[in-house]
Amino acid sequence: MDVTTVKVMTSMSSEIFDELETVKEAAQHLRKHPRTLMRWTRLPDGLPFVRLGQVPYLHIPTAKAWVARRIHRPNPVRAAGRRRDVKVHS
C-alpha cells in the first residue's frame, strides 16, 4: 500500500468511529430505553449495530436510514374513500 491509500483508509475509519454512539447514548437521544433499541436489533430486518468488545454501538447514519424506511404514510386510496361531509345526528 502506498501512503495515499493508508491516509484514505485512516480518515475513513476515523469518520466511521466518529459516527458511532453507544446504544445507551442513542437511547437517550431518542427518549427510549436501551432495551427497546436492542429489541429492535433482533427484528427480522432489525436495527443494525456493531459490538466492540461487549459494548453495542449504533452507526448513526445507518440507524437514521433504518428509521426513515419505517415512516408510515397514509394510503391515498383509503383516504380518498372517507366521507368527511357526513353529518352526525344527535
Quick overview:
The chain is of the alpha+beta class.
Summary keywords:
single chain; 90 residues; alpha+beta; Arc Repressor Mutant, subunit A; 5 helices; 3 strands
Question: What is the fold-level CATH name, i.e. the topology of the domain at 19-72?
Answer: Arc Repressor Mutant, subunit A
Poorly predicted residue ranges = none
β-strand percent reads 5-15%
Portion in helices: 40-55%
Strand count, sense and barrel status of the largest sheet are: 3 strands, antiparallel
**Assembly status:** single chain
Query: Termini, distance in Å?
Result: 81 Å
Mean pLDDT: 80
Please provide the ordered H/E string of secondary-structure elements: HEHHEEHH
By secondary-structure content and strand pairing, the structural class works out as alpha+beta
Write down the overall geometry.
Answer: elongated
Q: Radius of gyration in whole Å, from Cα?
A: 21 Å
What's the structural blueprint in terms of helices and strands?
Blueprint: H1 3-18, E1 20-22, H2 23-30, H3 34-41, E2 50-52, E3 55-59, H4 60-68, H5 76-81
Antiparallel strand pairs: 1-3, 2-3
Walkthrough of the structure:
It is elongated and about 65 Å long. The longest helix is centred in the N-terminal third of the chain and has 16 residues. Helix 2 packs across helix 3. With 90 residues, it is of the alpha+beta class. A 3-stranded antiparallel sheet has the order 1-3-2. The chain is built from 5 helices and 3 strands, in the order αβααββαα. A hairpin with a 2-residue loop joins strand 2 and strand 3.
